[in-house]
Design goal:
- The structure holds three protein chains of three kinds.
- Chain A contains nine helices and twelve strands.
- By secondary structure, chain A is α/β, with parallel strands linked by helices.
- In chain A, strands 1, 5, 6, 7, 8, 9, 10, 11 and 12 form a nine-stranded mixed β-sheet that branches. Chain A has a three-stranded antiparallel β-sheet with strand order 2-3-4.
- The longest helix of chain A is centred in the first third of the chain and has 32 residues.
- Chain B folds into two domains: about 45 residues; about 250 residues, Orthogonal Bundle (MetI-like fold).
- Chain B contains eleven helices and no strands.
- Chain C is mainly alpha-helical.
- Chain C has one domain: MetI-like (MetI-like fold, Orthogonal Bundle).
- Helices cover about 75% and strands about 0% of the residues of chain C.
- The longest helix of chain C has about 30 residues.
- The model of chain C has no long low-confidence stretch (mean pLDDT about 90).
- The chains are: A alpha/beta, B mainly alpha, C mainly alpha.
- Chain C: InterPro entries: AA_ABC_transptr_permease_3TM, ArtM/GltK/GlnP/TcyL/YhdX-like, MetI-like, MetI-like_sf.
- Chain C: It comes from Streptomyces roseicoloratus.
- Chain C: Keywords: Amino-acid transport, Cell membrane, Membrane, Transmembrane, Transmembrane helix, Transport.
Chain lengths: ~280, ~300, ~220
């Protein structure tokens, strides 16, 4: 009798363990799925942002929209891949070099500014867009007309971003700085007037301001506080670089580039710079 | 509702009842005032607008694209942490009951060390260590770091749970095992450990609640895409509805943890009432008790 | 090897941790006592409120609460708790969040302390003619307080460690500095050992001392 009961209990424990194991097994297979990189002829893996409206955004139906996505799709098409053959992968700012170096992605189009430090680790095709650091403020706020006006203002940016430090050290040392994990947290404060301005690249700001919920509520300062040359990152020494450059030139020439910029960032009144020349980085 | 007698006051008479009604009315007014202020302020900031909340009720894609995958990662991290930490904890818990002084001391030092350090510090360390010393892909690193931090901390908490579970068994069990000629190791693996697992179950389930709550740190500080981190892409898509997204996510956390807590209490009640077990239980509250560094309910030598 | 340490205010960061712990401990003791009073009060509605509060707060991650103080209370409702700059506002918000969370645990510790007093003690007190306040003051509370020192020590230790969560809203305490240092310096092991040691210095002596107190004042039954 007692033995029987013990056996049952042991069975129950075994069953519980099996459930847990199957759970973790599912987790593992999930993680293993995307890591193959570009070895396969059929598919191409592209790194983009998942949470930046106007540039790279994962929408509720699992699709991706934004300028970076449109550029990457065009480039992939020129490389011989249909939109359906693209594996999109999230490339968070801090992970971009590692993703390329490990070969987890074939190329990255994720608000990726070309800088000397990054160029030591990866190669850049492009640039395909010249962006500037800028501020976003409420459209009824006329007190900020130049960067120095940010002194004593409440400024918001994301943790560890260079934009915030740039303002703090060079442009407006008296500005107060709040850092959050993401820009949408800053927007809530900006909308409710506890934050005066949000600073980062004008493209990112325009992407937020172009969302239907925000149209008319915010405006860009147009201060051009820095030059950000968005490039497409590839592995060091990759032959993709030349092909991507060709694709980018074609995209500008046939007008798809301007169409993509207008579609994704236009509604916010974003004035884009003329398409940059391939290989020319504006310092 | 029938009043139970307590140490604080008698069963209320007519005057006390009238006074209680007055208190109730005042309390309702105070709570209502606070709620009214919150709702009014939220409405004034346009946070109660339908467009910010509707997606959660009308658009199932919000759940399938953001919330459920986040919840899945939370559950995976918590389950992995529990499954890995439990055997480690058992090892250390048993080592602390060893007859050899140096084994007890070594295990004790390790357990005390990891219990004294915040789990966030352990996660930050694990995250940096994986990126510096290993080849884990950036995609998986947050999960690895979160699980590692949770395992390091919870193994030491579970070591105490296991120890308490073994100590909670009646001494007759050890005596009987000795009487039929079992050696120390046999007593532990064949008699004490199997029975203590049952005794520990409620404490284990409620420790799972602590683990689930701590996974949110990974979302906020390490970029682990768990439930809390799903707020960001969600609010990026729906016009910065951060308040609505946060509220929904908080509710999901509460429901998940409430189910676990209730399950733990149910288990504990069942075990306490059970006549055919030894009746030894490490209760739900014990986990809190055990989180105290430097305190050992019973020294190993005291065990009969 | 140790030169880079001079560029960082490690002691200052731990001082912020201590301040967070101190103010949150006082606040959660007050709010937790009020909650405990509600949970044992003769008014059913207050008991209900206390129960609901404790059950909800104990099941929400502290991270969610802390982030919510910043996004909800400050950014949306405009509660700045009287501070002018972000440093002050974030610090106070973090303290508020820690109080809201920790008070639930303080409440449970106090309530279980009251429950340890046997009913017979009160019956005996009433039998020798003590009135309600005398019973509470001379019999119940002294015994209850002595039995909650141990559980409250746990809560304090947990609170000390939980102050690291304030890093999520940018309070410049130990964990935030540790993350910054790890990102900027290639001395992972050394940095981690320093911060681990710092927290051990904060939690272990407190735990040992208060447990000694708890044993000394414990009611022998």
């Amino acid at each position: 009798m007692t033995m029987n009961r013990f056996r049952n209990r042991r069975l129950a424990v075994a069953a519980a363990a099996a459930v847990v194991l199957s759970f973790t097994a599912a987790a593992c297979s999930d993680d293993g799925g995307g890591g193959s990189g570009g070895g396969d002829d059929e598919k191409i893996t592209v790194g983009i942002k998942f949470d930046q409206p106007g540039l790279g955004l994962k929408t509720p139906d699992g699709k991706y929209t934004g300028l970076d996505v449109d550029v990457a799709t065009y480039v992939a098409k020129e490389l011989g891949y249909d939109p359906g053959d693209i594996d999109w992968k999230e490339a968070k700012s801090a992970d971009r070099e590692t993703l390329l170096q490990r070969g987890d992605v074939d190329f990255i189009a994720a608000t990726y500014s070309i800088t000397p430090q990054r160029s030591e680790k990866v190669d850049f095709a492009g640039p395909y867009l010249l962006a500037h650091q800028d501020v976003l403020m409420r459209s009824d706020d006329d007190s900020i007309t130049k960067p120095a006006d940010l002194n004593n203002k409440k400024l918001c940016s994301v943790t560890g971003s260079t934009s915030a430090q740039n303002v703090k050290t060079k442009l407006a040392p008296q500005a107060q700085l709040q850092e959050y994990g993401g820009y949408s947290e800053c927007l809530t404060g900006l909308e409710n007037k506890v934050i005066d301005a949000l600073t980062t690249d004008d493209t990112i700001l325009a992407g937020y301001a172009a969302q239907p919920e925000f149209q008319g509520k915010f405006k860009l300062g147009g201060f051009k506080m820095s030059n950000e040359n968005y490039g497409i990152g590839v592995q060091k020494g990759s032959e993709l670089k030349a092909q991507i450059n060709e694709a980018l030139e074609k995209m500008v020439a046939d007008g798809s580039w301007q169409a993509a910029v207008d579609k994704n960032l236009g509604p916010a009144g974003y004035q884009n710079e003329p398409p940059p020349k391939i290989g020319v980085v504006v310092p | 509702m029938k009043e139970k007698p307590t140490v604080l006051y008698d069963v209320p008479g007519p005057r006390a009842r009238r006074r209680n009604v007055l208190y109730t009315v005042l309390f309702v007014i105070a709570v209502a005032a606070i709620i009214w202020w919150v709702v009014d302020s939220l409405a004034a900031k346009n946070q109660l607008e339908g467009e910010k909340w509707d997606p959660f009720f009308t658009d199932s894609r919000v759940w399938t694209t953001y919330i459920l995958p986040g919840l899945k990662n939370t559950v995976i991290a918590a389950a992995l942490a529990m499954v890995i930490a439990l055997p480690l904890g058992a090892l250390f818990g048993i080592a602390r009951l060893s007859d050899h002084r140096w084994v007890r001391a070594a295990a004790g030092t390790v357990v005390e060390f990891f219990r004294a350090i915040p789990v966030l510090i352990l996660m930050l360390f694990a995250n940096a260590a994986y990126s510096e010393f290993t080849d884990v892909s950036p995609e998986n690193r947050p999960l690895y770091a979160v699980v590692t931090g949770l395992v390091l901390y919870n193994a030491s908490v579970l070591a105490e749970v296991v120890r308490a579970g073994i100590l909670a068994l009646p001494s007759g069990q050890t005596d009987a095992a000795k009487a039929i000629g079992m050696r120390k190791g046999q007593t532990m693996t064949n008699v004490l450990l199997p029975q203590s697992v049952t005794a520990m179950l409620p404490a284990l389930v409620s420790q799972l609640v602590v683990i689930v709550k701590d996974t949110a740190l990974g979302g906020a500080m390490l970029g682990f895409s768990e439930l809390l981190a799903s707020v960001r892409p969600m609010s990026a898509n729906y016009g910065a509805n951060t308040i609505a997204s946060f509220t929904i996510v908080a509710v999901v956390f509460v429901v998940l943890n409430f189910l676990l807590t209730s399950f733990a209490s149910w288990l504990e009640g069942r075990l306490r009432r059970g006549k055919r077990t030894t009746g030894a239980v490490v209760g739900v509250e014990a986990v809190e008790e055990l989180n105290r560094p430097g305190e050992h309910p019973t020294e190993p030598g005291d065990r009969p | 090897m140790f030169d880079f340490l001079q560029d960082y205010d490690i002691l200052g960061a731990f001082w912020t941790t201590i301040q967070l712990t101190f103010w949150s401990a006082i606040g959660s003791l007050v709010w937790g006592t009020l909650l405990a009073a509600m949970r044992v009060s003769p008014v059913p509605l207050m008991r209900g409120f206390g129960t609901v509060y404790v059950n909800i707060v104990r099941n929400i991650p502290l991270t969610v609460i802390i982030v919510f103080t910043s996004l909800g209370l400050f950014q949306t409702l405009g509660v700045s708790l009287g501070a002018k700059d972000f440093t002050g506002i974030n610090f106070r918000l973090a303290v508020l969040g820690l109080i809201a969370y920790t008070a639930a645990f303080v409440c449970e510790a106090l309530r279980s302390g009251i429950n340890t007093v046997p009913l017979g003690q009160v019956e005996a007190a009433r039998a020798i003619g003590l009135n309600f306040t005398q019973t509470l003051r001379l019999v119940v509370l002294p015994q209850a307080f002595r039995s909650v020192v141990g559980p409250l020590t746990n809560v304090l230790i947990a609170l000390t460690k939980n102050t690291t969560v304030a890093a999520t809203i940018g309070v410049a305490e130990a964990a935030l500095l540790m993350r910054e240092m790890i990102e900027n310096e290639a001395q992972l092991i050394l940095i981690s050992v320093i911060f681990a040691f710092g927290f051990i210095c904060l939690t272990l002596p407190t735990g040992l001392f208060l447990n000694w107190v708890a044993k000394k004042v414990a009611v022998k039954r």
